[in-house]
Amino acid sequence: MIAFHEVSKRYNSLAALADISFEIETGEFVFLLGPSGAGKSTLLKLIIREEMPSAGRVFFDGLEINKIPTRQVPDLRRRVGTIFQDFKLLPQRTVFENVAFPLEIIGLDDDEIEKSTRETLSLVNLDQRASNFPYQLSGGEAQRTAIARAMVMRPEVILADEPTGNLDPASAWEVMKLLDRLNSLGTTVVMASHNMDITSSLPHRNLEIAEGRIVNDTKQKKTKASERKEKIVK
Amino acid sequence: MRNLQRLVKIAITRISRNPYHALAAFLVMFLTFFVVGAFILASIGSNTLLSYFESRPAVTAFLKDGTSIEKVKGIQDDLTTSRIVSKTRYVSKEEALKIYKERNKDEPLLTEFVTADVLPASIEVSTYKLEDLSKAASILKKDSAVEEVVFQKNIVETLTNWTRALRNIGGAVVLFLLATAFLTTLIVVGLNISLHKDEIEIMRLVGATSWYIRIPFILEGIFYGAFSALVATAFLWGIFTWISPNLQRIFSGVPILPTGQSVFLYLLLFELVAGTLIGVIGSSFATRKYLTV
Predict the structure, then answer these.
(1) Residue A154 falls inside a structural domain
(2) What is the span of the domain harbouring residue A78?
(3) Closest CA relative to residue A167, chosen from A58, A85, A69, A48
């Protein structure tokens, strides 16, 4: 689904990512781990072409992202839902309107928008908050609204950049359960985090980055371990 | 169509949320279109006035009492053969009296004791070109039956000069104001782009196309331009409709201002097109300069 081939990203003389290669399969749940400034956010931005790589190639569903024409970038972004630490909700719009926003952009009619938005709000348990404005929500509710907005387009992938960073532990777990549920429904989830409590207690793949390089990938270890196991069995 | 409705709604919401920006843009553009419209009307008015004077008999030769009809015909023939004269008309003493009475019908004291004998007969002469007025006047002055020659050379020349000056000064002022209106649109739309930075970022992230993001700002520019043009033309129509009858009375029938409804319809059309164009160009420049999508 997502592949990085020898990708580097430099900001002037500063290397945010250095010669990174990895693949993420459809339906996987991957934690991007690492301290602040390790390059996690840059990596996510490369997937939605918010940034372009300085070297290397980034693929999404077989498409080389840095080579698609600019006019096709919105199509790519409609296939990838994004969630942020600071929620990025529109303050003058209600919860319902925030969630309905991506559907308006693609030109769905009002009935379809109403139906899809209500369904999605119900999925994140925000039916009762539909007419509230973002400032009337708790952190957890605001993040669930952001998740609903990312989900409403039924994306193939959800990218979450520190989605629990601003939340108390109870709300953080609520958000994690929600992302886990989405993943179990078939959505690929890539989540950047440095909350070790959460990431270590869930059995998902960990991709650890430090100083712009991958220093640990639990999938490779698992694969190598299973290869060894297969050899022994043979 | 559905998307256009949504984009119009976004534009209206943004305008209503920044009323001072909208008011600043409206006032500057209103002033521009008001002055542009006033200059256009003044220009049409001066042209009408010029045509009016040009179409009037430009040289009048007052004849000595007792000049015979044959003599008058002889003078008219001389003028016609000169090829510079387009029209001649003999006004007898009786006709002069009729004209005098008509012009002073509201002042009975002025007409009561006046008879045809007091008024001179005259020949009114029009020339094809303004510069031939002096020639026609010289031909008439040479004739012994002519008492006095009066011609409107100065009026028409002065009016022509004024019209030319009005066009030049008006053109410069209009260009200056149009440039100001363009820059105001650019600045106001640019400010609104900065104010909606977060919203634009979210729109981009959820997959809005570049045009979906740009169009509400361009619609905002169109609204400022078209609405100000509409209000400015309505103001001009009101003012001109109000002052025109008074001016017409003062200038006793001389068409000093254009008040025909069709003139205002064309003016409205022109100002709406100009306003929309300034709005589109100003806001397009703003989105190109300040919006990265």
Answers:
(1) yes
(2) 24-47+67-233
(3) A85
